[in-house]
Amino acid sequence: MAEESVAASRGDSEPEADSSPAAVLRSLHRWHQKRARAAEKIRRAQRTCELRRQAITEKEQQLEQARQQLKELRRQIDLKEIDQKTKEQRIAELTRRLHECKTNREYALLLSERKAQEAAAGRLEDELLELMEREDQLKARLDELKRELEQVRQEVAQFEAETSEKIAQYEQALKQAEQELARVEQQIPKSPPELRETYQRLVRQKGADAIATVEEREDLTFVCLGCYSTLPPQIGMQLHAGEWVLCSSCGRLLYLDR
Ligand SMILES: [Zn+2]
């Protein structure tokens, strides 16, 4: 990005000795362009900051998602642990009843249920181990995300500090351009009143493109560099006579390119 040094453009702020339309328009054109460039730089810098801040939001969302996953995993583990405890109690109860049972049939039934409960408890144990392993991994990921978020926050803070310095410079350049415009605009003749009105309307509509240079070619044709139309010879004569002229094609205020 080309740095527009405010100090370097100071030389332009000296009062114009030449108040011809060409000199006034040239100066206005330049200051409008500087103002537009400064405004664009401010807009871009602010946009870049916004985009950087989005990286924080994204990381925060990832972190929140991981927290929710961890919470859900914990809930599943808690449920399975309750389930496991219930099964262990049941197995203990079945074991106790096996010692007390009177008939072979009852013994066989109790034994069969205990076997089933033990098998289920074994599967539960495996599932729990797997869930706990996933919980450990997720906890590690969560810590990693926290570190990453902290890093992104620091980077963005640093970037914003640097950018706000630049923005302050651009704002200074913008302010200077506006002051200079206000000063040079005083040199636009007050009569006819339509002249200032036209200028103001064009600036509102087109900004820096309210004004265009005219190139006088070797074949004596005049070309508006705003719309690249060849202008009628009459306009060329008016420009040479030092008159205020609008492009017959695009309506911009014209001045001869020296
Ligand atoms: Zn034009």
Structure description:
- The chain is an alpha+beta fold and 258 residues long.
- The chain folds into two domains: 19-185, Helix Hairpins (Orthogonal Bundle); 193-256, no CATH class.
- It contains four helices and five strands; from the N terminus they run H-H-H-E-E-E-H-E-E.
- A five-stranded mixed β-sheet has the order 3-2-1-5-4, with helices on both faces.
- Strand 2 and strand 3 form a beta hairpin.
- It is rod-shaped, with a radius of gyration of 40 Å.
- The two termini are 28 Å apart.
- Residues 212, 224, 226-227, 229, 247, 249-250, 252 line the site of zinc ion.
Number of domains: 2
Count of DSSP H/I helices: 4
In N-to-C order, the SSE pattern is: HHHEEEHEE
Bound molecules: zinc ion
Strands, count = 5
- Percent range for helical residues? over 70%
The residue-averaged pLDDT reads 92
From the coordinates shown, what is the CATH architecture of the largest domain? Orthogonal Bundle
Oligomer: single chain
Largest sheet: 5 strands, mixed
Strand order in space, largest sheet: 3-2-1-5-4
Give unreliable regions as ranges: 1-13
CATH topology of the largest domain: Helix Hairpins
Shape: rod-shaped
- What CATH first level of the largest domain would be assigned? Mainly Alpha
How big a fraction of the residues is strand? 5-15%
Secondary-structure-derived class: alpha+beta
Estimated radius of gyration: 40 Å
Give the CA-CA distance, first to last residue. Answer: 28 Å
